Automatic annotation (TrEMBL):
It comes from Mastigocoleus testarum BC008. This is DUF4352 domain-containing protein. The lineage of its organism: Bacteria, Bacillati, Cyanobacteriota, Cyanophyceae, Nostocales. Residues 1-23 form the signal peptide. Keywords: Signal.
Length: 194
């Protein structure tokens, strides 16, 4: 009985491994090199010349790897109200003093909601500090907030997104929809800023 089970298992492995090899061969090019008449022809001799190493070529895999990120943002009035209430309810005297100095300097605290969507096929490391805010004749970066409700450094898997609020300081009186532009900056990622 054990010999029969071992024989069936060996036969199954043999069938499976030959099927895998055929699947890999099918991904190798089988088009003839004669393309002068712009027609694609399948010559049977090309199938026997197919190389299994073609589909696992490192250069080809690197070329197919895409680090791409869609970045968008929107105003966040509810998050701004929550931050304000948190400062009022849980704030210390030093928090109120810092906020008063900020407002007295002609600046204000802004909260917006950002969405980072990995549309490539590689995991991406994303950081709040890479978000830049442009207004009138100046720019700033967002402020990292050590609170899970705000955007934190993270690894974003392909097909996934993060949608969280961020804070930044800019001159008071800015109209977020008219005066502010935002973008994500990372030279290792192709970023589409919406």
């Amino acid at each position: 009985m054990k010999k029969i089970i071992a024989s069936i298992a060996a036969l199954g492995l043999w069938i499976h491994s030959s099927g895998v090899a055929n699947a890999k061969q099918a991904t190798a090019p089988i088009v003839s090199k004669n393309t002068a008449n712009n027609s694609l022809t399948n010559n049977s001799s090309n199938i026997s010349n197919a190389s299994l190493s073609y589909s696992s070529n490192d250069e080809q895999l690197i070329a197919q790897s895409v680090a791409r990120l869609n970045f968008s943002w929107r105003i966040a009035p509810f998050e701004l109200a929550a931050v304000g209430m948190s400062i009022i309810l849980k704030g210390k005297k030093s928090d109120f003093d810092a906020l008063a100095r900020l407002l007295a300097s002609g600046h204000d605290l802004y909260v917006v909601r950002v969405r980072l969507h990995n549309t490539g096929n590689l995991p991406l490391r994303v950081y709040p500090q890479n978000i830049k805010v442009y207004y009138r004749n100046g720019s700033t970066s967002v402020i990292p907030v050590p609170d899970y409700r705000f955007l934190q450094p993270d690894i974003l898997r392909p097909g996934y997104y993060i949608d969280k609020p961020v804070l930044f300081i800019a001159p008071s009186g800015l109209n977020l929809l008219r005066d502010v532009r935002m973008g994500y900056r990372d030279s290792s990622i192709r970023v589409i800023n919406n």
